[in-house]
Amino acid sequence: MACSRRMPDQPPSRIFVVHRHQARRLHYDLRLEIDGVLKSWALPKGPTLDPQQRRLAVLVEDHPLEYADFEGNIPPGQYGAGSVMVWDRGRFRVLGSGSPERQFARGQLKLWFEGSKLKGEFALVRMRQSADQWLLIKKADEYARPGWDPDEFAWSVLTGRSQQEIAREAPPHHEFPLEEPDPPCSKP
Question: Residues 6 or more apart from 168 whose CB is under 8 A from it?
Fold first, then answer.
């Protein structure tokens, strides 16, 4: 029996990527294709599919679109030195009125992700007290998973490698990239 999923009116058309970055401290970087670049936020605890968890997202410098598929090591002595994993990637679209550029300028992005790990509706909201501090919030939908922890899914969607394998430049696993199956439908 097929389940019904509430989907946005149009298919997602812009890229997003989540890098898992072992620098001085492990963190995740959410990157969205907006205005011809990858707008980027550092997430100290990573994204989650748990709608009860709000995740701090600190706006950082833009990155070129070509950086979306970067996986490897940033050499010692350079900014961000350490291993970088493509933890998730896919397409997104904005929900509601306004382009991604307009929603970004207003400080309230309503997003629909179609990634290997992140799926469904999210909000990215700028906090009033700081221009650089935002919150990433998973909306309660059929993709929501209470207690979901990104560190339990710490493998590359490009190569299947762990953070340690990337750091030591191990070869990619032959079965990757691999599409993740859709999670099961929630019970009504």
Answer: none
Domain boundaries, the chain: 14-143
The tokens 């899914």 sit on which residue? 153
CA dihedral 25, 108, 70, 21 (to 10 degrees): 10
What span, in angstroms and rounded, lies between the C-alpha atoms of 59 and 152? Answer: 25
**CA end-to-end distance (rounded Å), the chain:** 14
**Separation CA 11–CA 77 (nearest Å):** 42
pLDDT tens by residue, 124-181: 999 988 889 999 999 999 999 999 999 999 999 999 999 999 999 999 886 666 554 4
| Residue among 114, 101, 144 nearest 11 (CA) | 114
Measuring CA to CA, how many Å separate 10 from each of 96, 97, 99, 121? 12, 13, 13, 14
> Number of helices and strands (H, E) in the chain?
2, 9
